[in-house]
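User: Second chain of the day. Same drill as before.
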Amino acid sequence: MRVATPTSEIEAKQVVEGLKHAGWKKIIKKNAKPSQTLLRVLERDYLEHNNDNEQQEQEQEKLPITRVALTPVTGRTHQLRVHCAAIGHPIVGDPTYGILGEASPNGGLKAMPSSSSTTKTTTELQMKIDQWTKNKKQVMCLHARKLSLPHPITGEDLNFDEPPKF
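Assistant: Same format as last time:
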């Protein structure tokens, strides 16, 4: 799944060529289906990161992060991950759509605001967060907080609510 733009068809084909390793298989559709995700900010927080500096001893740096609630209105493959990357805020630890991911940067959007823009996470910050995830051996910070479904036999509503561990 990707965000389609007028120039993205050629770019997408180039990305797919680079993904023909490690079991990746992507299908590019000329007329991508629309997708929509609702995003609500829950909390703003910081990750504690050791800043390696040759001149000084290691100092703690605070990396800003935002915990959000994402609600998919449609159900497309990688929808939440692509939409977050497309607005310049990839999910922490996303190995595919994050800063060094194997898929298109920014969820397939080529024209993004400059790094000095306040609407996009800077490349420098994304690199530091990527290093934090590697240092902490952190998996992608994406979690289904609430799930509700009918029991397959009784039809009774089953509701699960589990806060994330990260």
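The CA atoms of residues 37 and 93 lie 20 Å apart.

User: Great, on to the next one.
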